[in-house]
Design goal:
It is extended and about 65 Å long. The mean pLDDT is about 90. By secondary structure, it is mainly α. Pfam families: DUF808. Keywords: Membrane, Transmembrane, Transmembrane helix.
Amino acid sequence: MSAEIVAITLGIVAEAPLLNQVLVLSGIALVVTVGVYGLVGVIVKIDDLGYWLAEKSSALMQALGKGLLIIAPWLMKALSIVGTLAMFLVGGGIVVHGIAPLHHAIEHFAGQQSAVVAMILPTVLNLILGFIIGGIVVLGVKAVAKMRGQAH
């Protein structure tokens, strides 16, 4: 996710002087990397935290720990689904932003719709494009693997 955010940021500061680009991109990359990987670290260790709290003498801490142990598997499943959708959404968004005529066409079309549709439509189209591109990439990888005799 860090790379996608940096790519989007680059698109935003592309017209700025080089020094500004370097400073903005470096700052964003640092903040996003620390934030994302810090959050991931906490999520990955949530069951350890739950177990640790469940062993405490306080009834409140035990209840909190047991609660974390109960929700951890559900959280991981939900994050796998949300994360996959986010990958397609961000990937589609990067492609749309990288093809200026497509980006402008989507924004123009969305601008002609009602306010709610205009707000949601670009996101939905980015998601759909992400699915399509993801499917094309999977087909390409499978075709190359088949040509190499590595198909499973």
